[in-house]
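Lecture 7 notes: from sequence to structure.

We start with a single chain of 616 residues. Read the sequence below before looking at the structure.
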Amino acid sequence: MGYLDNYIDKIRNEGKTGFADSIEKTAKQIGEKRLSQFDYASHQMGLLFGNIQSGKTGHVFGVMCEAVDLGFPFFMFLTTDSTTLQEQTYDRAKNDLTDFVVCNENEEQKFRNHGDKPVVVVVKKNYRVLKAWANRFRNTNMLLGNPLFIIDDEADAASLNTKVNQDKVSSINKYLQDIIDTAQSSIYLQMTGTPQSLLLQSSISGWHPLFVDYFEPGNAYLGGNFFFPKDKTPDFVRFIDGEPASNLARDVVIRHLVVTAQLFLTGHEVSNCLIHTSRLQSEHNRTAREISNVLDELSESSDDPKLKAEMKKEYDTLAPVKDPKQSFEDIYQLVQKILSKKEFNIVKLNGSSADTSEDYANGCNFIVGGTNLGRGVTFSQLHTFYYARTSKHPQADTMWQHNRMFGYDRDKGLISLFITHELYNLFSEINETNNAIVEQARKGEKITISYPDGLNPTRENVLDKSLLNILPGNSNHFPSNPHNNTFDEISKMVEKFDGTEAPQEVTLNLIIKILDKFEDDNFNFAGYKSMIQSEMHKASLATGMLMVRRNRNITYGMRSLLSPNDWAATNAFTDKFVLTLYQVNGDNPELNWPEGKKLWVPNIKLPGTSNIYMID
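Now the structure, written as tokens:
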């Protein structure tokens, strides 16, 4: 049996058949499409992305095993700059990759003496650690003649050049490049649940992925489409706009206590509630005090009829699907016991707290924090989520990493999300764009990213501003000298338009087909078509507007194309792509068109609902 077969069998023997099938599919797909085609002479950058907390590590371990079966012996696994996370990943690799020699970041000799087994070293993205391994590879013949396979977990977190706009190189990025350069050839597999910053890297940077693969989560996964579906708001969402903080704290506490009792009565040992209201530690302290005050108040009056009525109201909303629903009396009695004996914990996770993951591994927990509740942190049996963190300049990837309620061990009938309308709508926008990115990746299309004004895709310091195009919503774009592949074919496609009609609603597919007929070396037709395709991935029957005008005397080199009346007509449509086709009398020598013949000139107006990001 091969390495992948052994790994998959191990997972199946643990009873995780669906997860094993998903990993096998991902590994075989990447093996066939990417690894088997590797030339052993180049350095290739690729991206494997999935959903937040959807099993990325398990999938990439499968890819590593498939790579060994295809002849790759040396691996480096990069984690974020956290000793705890590096040690967790090292321990997991030792447990799961039993056919590998697994080394920690200080085991150079073990890496050298791997014998006839594949070897992986697990290191954190700390510049001292990376510099040391770059020197080890450079000063020895460990990699001579062999490719190095690098897996960068959370590749968007610290690996990119944060000094790109200063014409400098940040230290982490420098030493990662040094490690790549020590090998004769390499595959560098970026891995993340938020690929925005990676997809917006320029091709000349060397950090834009040459290939992009997406892996599906398992059937039990609850993620963006569960929490933020497109056409409705789920019943478990509780909007908190205008709710006094003390009332809200009481609602959250009572909800979590009822869910905790249901879980404990069905054999579970942990129940977590996550409260993320701010990045400020002073706010964490204030929120923790509010939760503590409510718990103290309830503990002193656990037999209060008002509390019982509030609990009954919460109980009636429970609809567990993984375990039988327990009786209200049993749940009520257990909550009274939890309160009277104070069998609960308030855990603070931030830069100054001493609490750790062990503090919320068991029991009934109320976890309060901010930035530390993001990337790489997992919470078992998390069913109550209170999110109110706001930002003047929100970033889509950072916000999405805050969604720690995503995962496999959740019971969808116990979930509750306390959130404002504004934040819920922002998350819904991010989810919609994520789905469009996934569809573009599945189809192998050029990926474009769009967000509403005020929501940025990622942090600015990792994007090359000299090459990044941010196209504002409602803006107009047209080529200066479009070559018509055939004037007659374009004319035939719009022959029913006499040139006097108002903009007409048509399928976006027709607009793409029309744009296929144009070329211009100085106009990114492929990019604009990719934008429109991205919109179609959000809704396959999405429409745009088409307006045709004939017999136009437009001078070559004009700064604007549309007449005032046509500009006003197209501006009436703020939420759609609008394509205006002008039939220009290019055969009139006074108009100075280079080819001296009639031509069609397209004008593309972008929807006003989003800004669109493209990288040259």
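The chain is about 35% helix and 20% strand. Keep this in mind for problem set 3.
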